[in-house]
Amino acid sequence: MATTSIGIAKKDREAVAKQLSKLLADTYSLYLKTHSFHWNVTGPHFNSLHTMFETQYNELWLAADEVAERIRTLDVFAPGSYSQFGKLTTIKEEPSVPDWKEMVNQLVTGHEIAAATAREVIKVADAAGDEGTVDMATGRLKAHEKTAWMLRSLLK
Predict the structure, then answer these.
(1) What is the pTM of this model?
(2) Domain 10-154 indexed as CATH 1.20.1260.10
(3) Which of 53, 55, 93, 151 could disulfide-pair with 38, CB 3.0 to 4.6 Å?
(4) With contact defined as beta carbons under 8 Å apart, do 126 and 137 qualify?
């Protein structure tokens, strides 16, 4: 069996993957919430929010795959169940259907949480000399910060 030899020690790869697993859980949880809000939004901004949420959940879906594949690149198994994600994320589940303003507010909070998680990934990956993960996590950080800003702007 071939061993993984990408210039990062196994313990460092595992530490990075642990942080990436939290980012994956945040990404998937935010994807699910955004998709639900896309289905259930109502009110005077229905069309624009319905379309915006669709763009956002599609981006999150692709991002989840990118994060999971980075975990696998580090030769660690990626979490992939709701129960695993529930233990790894701090994004709160929404069991009801809030009004559009609360939907937007929750998504702002979710993207801010994911941005903070991406910052932690960057710190651990940088300490491990894992430039590939630093690069990917920096892209995720920028995407979450921009999306939070765009959503926050709707509430002003």
Answers:
(1) 0.95
(2) yes
(3) 53
(4) no
